[in-house]
Structures are given as structure tokens and as C-alpha cells.
Request: fold
Amino acid sequence: MISIAGHVGSGKSTVARIIADRTGMDLFSTGGVFRRLADRLGMTVLELNEYARGHPEVDDEVDGHLRRLADDPRPLVIDSRMAWFFVPDSFKVFIVVDAAEGARRVYGAGRHDEHHDSIDAAREKGKTRERVEARRYLALYGVVRDDWRNYDLIVDSTHAPAEAVADAVLSTVASPPPIQPRCMLSPRRLLPSRARGTDFAVGPTSDISVAVCDGFPVIVAGHGTVMAAIEGGRSLVECRLAAYGRPPSRSGVTPAKVRAWEAANGFSFDTLPAWARPEEEG
Reply:
């Protein structure tokens, strides 16, 4: 059994369908349950998320389906933000995505129940939805859904097509790593913690390790390997999770390092945390 959670716009539902099609496993989506409930109540998904904060029967209805799946004998792919919690014996996948790219996808999808006037509006609504859901799950179950350590596999879909994400899931299910979570991340999303110079001259066979600060992966070791992956046009690289929840003050990232990294690699980050933005350098 495989459970797939992810950020808004990460493509988790598409990946779940691909895996179900490839393997013949049955597909279950709590998103579909939630949307049908929203339609029944005459609400948007965001409105139903807000409504659910004071009406526990909403989560009871949705989560009741998940609780029953834990004892389901069928091989399943579960597309759900909370299946990792309710179906703990599943292979737990979390798909992350850059906020700007996620918003572009949501805006381009044009769902009838999620109208957005612009990409910026889609991004703001997505941030609000993530925040509302996170608060609700913490209040109801005492868990932080976005904590990477809850999962067996983290995949960044920002620059990887859904088929490549599905490949990463199926290959990891077939051969689980000894240390979890396994992290398959976009090299163009990894923030540098070192300055330009000899620090970047590490050979391309060096392992990459990252620390996660405010949800952003920061290179702890393997800058040269990341540079080689960017130059080679790779959409995913394997990284070891060295630390999670490290405060930005201990990340080693500065606006000057970000500027140097972008110049050295010929690209600009789509999204940066406030503490890493060049304009914040004073």
C-alpha cells in the first residue's frame, strides 16, 4: 500500500493515478471525497477547510474513510494528505514543490471548484489552504503534516515530470533505503551554504546532504555535485537529510552566497525565503 501526500500543486493526484495505472493497484483519493462534500454544501475547497475548523464532523467523514483503509486487504494507492497518519503501515510519500510552480499549475488546471483570477491569487489561496489545514491537523491530531521525517520518501516535483516522480516512488518501494526518508530533490531548489571558490570544487561523486530550514532545503555538503547536476540538466538528485527544522540563523545561507550561486550556475531561484533574498542584504 502506497500513500501519497503533497503540497498544493505538487501533482500528487497525477502521480497517484500514474502509479495505479502502472501497477494495477486500486486508487483512493480523499481529495475526491472532500470535493464532493464541498459541492454538497455549496462551498469551495478553501471555504470547506475554514468551515471544518469549527465542524469536526467534516474531518470525521473524510478521515473515517482513511481509518477503514488501514484494514483493507487490497493493494492501494492512497492520494491523501493524512493517509501517512491513518494508514501507518503504508509506504509514505511526500511530494514537495516550489510555491511559484505549484501556483502556476493550480491556475493552469482551471478546476471548476477552484477559480483563481491570477497566478498570484492562486499562490495566496494555496498558502492559506496549507496554513488552515496545518493548523487543523495539529489541533485535531497533534501532528505536523509537512514534517519530512513522517515519510519514507520525499520527492520534489518542481522540475520533474509526473512520470519521473512516479519512477522515484516505484523504485524506492522496490528497494527501500536503509536510512529514511530517502530524498529525491531538484538541484535547482537547493540553497547554497558556502561561498564561491574552492568550496564549490568538490568532485561530482561526492554525496549531497541537506538541512531543511523553514521548509527550504540547504546544501550541507556536496555543492560541487549539485553544480554538476544543474549543468547536466538533471531534475532530481538523491540527498541525505542531515537535519530538519534547523533555524535560518544556522543555515549558513546569505544573500551574497545566493547571488554568487545563481551567477555560477546561470539561473535564478523561483522562490526564496526572506532570509535568503539578495534584497534583504544590508
